[in-house]
Amino acid sequence: MKLNCSIGQFCGIIRDMKKIVSLTPLGEDLIEKIKARTKGFELVVYPHKDYRSEDLADAEIILGWSSKVKEALKIEDNQIKWIQIWYAGVDRMPLEFLEQKNVLLTNASGANAPSIAQQVMGMLLCDVRSLDENLLNQRESNISITMLSSSLV
Prior knowledge:
It contains seven helices and five strands. It is 40% helix and 12% strand.
């Protein structure tokens, strides 16, 4: 059977699988989770910036952002439908351009909320209990009764 498609062109016989591209290295556990939830998709991970915009144009989903993604969106027959960025803000994203290209943009807003809440609670506790000051005094063997009583109130 002879195929009438050249390298780099879509060929339904060879390339009937949809493609997800990650522009960020992923751990093996995350790769397995993605593969388990995206049957029928090929997952390609570019751990370094050694990819071209043409490498991205045939992906339906892109995990990450770079200027090469915008270049890939300018390729006429690109397949990009969804871009997931790893950070919360979208203020530096070309929102109008993405809307014109009818591309869904999602972000990681709220993904770090539990760890940020824990950090804030820890800092509040440290401040209210003067833990930083007490630790410094303890290291310098400078502990007085007034310091102890004020930090225990």
